[in-house]
Amino acid sequence: MNIKKVIVSLLVIIAFVGMVIFGLSQQRARVKLMREMVPSAMVPIILVPGSSADQNRFDALIQELDEQTENHSLLKVKVDQDNQLHYSGTIRQGDKRPYIVISFQDNDDGYANIKKQAKWFSIAYQVLSKRYHFNQFSGIGHSNGGLILTIFLEKYLPDTSSIDKLMTIGTPYNLENTTKEKTTMLKDLIAGRKQIPTNLIMYSIAGTKSYAGDGTVPFKSVDSGKYIFQNQARSYTEMIVTGVESSHSDLPENKQIVKLISRFMLKPTRNSHH
Amino acid sequence: MLGGKYVNLSRKIMSLNFVQELQQAFRILNQQILVTAVLSVINLVVLDDSGFLKEIFGIDQWLPYFTQIQMIVNSLTIITGVMLIASIAYLMGSKKLDTYSLSGYISVIVTIIFMFPGNLLTGKINEDLIWLSFSAINLRNLLIAAVIGYLIKLIYLKLTQLINARTWFSALMTLLVLLGLFVLTRDDWTQAVIRTLYDWIDGIQGWGILLIPLIAVLNCLLFIFGIDSLLPVSNSDFSDAAIKNLNYVLEGHSVYSIPMPINIHALFDVYATSGGIGMLLPLVIAMWIVNRQHTDIHDLKLSVVPTVFNINAPLVTTYPILFNLILLIPMIISSVVACLIPGILILLQWLPSSVYPTATSTPGPLEGFLSTNGNWVALAVGIINLVISVLIYVPFIKLSNQELQVNKHEH
């Protein structure tokens, strides 16, 4: 009789704990799905400059965009080596599509530094998404900034967040390599590609001053992005810009690129899951 | 002195004709109720698209022939449910239980007219209504059938007696009551009235925490007299505040800054309806604790499982809970306490408000936990509410048991 009681109580406890555990995991999945279906009121465009560039890298570009379309607010955030955030500019109350430029005090080139910068980016992202209540963003990365965003998507994008669109401009997915041989970084990025959201709309823009590239980044290196995004992101579009201002450092001010950004990036893609 | 009067009132109400006949009908149909209840649990909790167990164990993913099983069980539940409703109407409508009864027969037909899931004039059936009303055994249907049966029998008895102005008049009056009931049971307008009331209380915020327990009291009162089921269940779709809060949180804002943290859904629905309105899960646990020495608690054991998943018809039909004023007291106290504990914690910001929707068949103590997306304080509150409510119920169940003994002896 006593054994029977013990067994029954054990069964009740096991059933309860089971319902707590399974119920929670199921509810978490459901809430995540609901969150994705309801995009945040604010969907910022986050811009990341390349190596050696500071937080003012995109000023001309954003001024140009503001003149063409409606005026959006601009917040600049610099992450220092101690993970501290330094703000300049503000996000206007009610602005649903502000620009946020995230730059780094240590903005050196090289894979090891890029990895560090991606980590700093993720710290800034978490602080900003909580502070300004957003769970969706669009990304624009110039040069190594595109690598930082890619690494962020592969390693740090929180479960509760999503990205609708990413545009990388002259991003050297295979560093300065002019051959087909893959660098360690490219290999790592390809290894982690399954983590890239499948609903991402991806644009990669290459500048070609000469047939080989934009003077700094070889075209082949930009083109290597296809090994990462193609057949993983919802769409992967590669575009080549030539003509005046198509050298690497001019790209963010290039008139054609400004047009491409205003055409493809300014409006967020709503409910891209369904 | 006052207590004695109260017990007397309870005694009087319990010995009313209607109550006695209803309990007799429930006793006769005991087996049928249990079968329907078992089917209901399987249908609503294990197989239904939004069933609690189906969701958490992903039953549709691994059970072979899931869709077929789902459809068959659903049909069986509807069939047994409708048979049960008809049986109640017949038993309550017939003068003597053992003979063919015309008034019983009429009661069944009138009940079908009342509950027809669709447009009576065109015969067009509304599938949503079938799902809402017949996918599980529900007290509302059984009680409407019982009242219809009882009233039809009254009319029938009067018209078959000496026909004079007086009997005609009283038969006409009863008919009017019946028509009033028909209007009352139309969901659309009762829903509108209650929605307005609920939205008003939710709009108050802060001090609204004092009004929400009143809603709990009102619900318990109506429930004891079998009317709870005339009220639509205020789930999260029903509450404006809940929808606003949910959208706010889904947009990425913090759950601690939602616009309406204190609302009827977040406090009453989530924390104070464990096992249905009136905290019936702690009631059945307390009953089990008090009566565990008795040998006749087999049926009680059987009604525990449905109550865990908020299907309370088997419990309420097996045990004299309806019209039992003695049980009304702990019911009200435990419901109010169960609203207030999370309410105060939410005001203190120690507990996030309940914002995420849960399946209606979610066990009571887990509802707060899941509707906060896994807040451990909410789980603790759910368990504490259960324990406190059981403790509140125990002495009253003892008292109610004594009362029922007295009643038995008197009959």
TrEMBL record, chain A:
One of its GO terms (molecular function) is hydrolase activity. InterPro entries: AB_hydrolase_fold (IPR029058), DUF915_hydro-like (IPR010315). It holds the Pfam family DUF915. Keywords: Hydrolase, Membrane, Transmembrane, Transmembrane helix. It comes from the Bacteria. The chain crosses the membrane at residues 6-25. This is Alpha beta hydrolase.
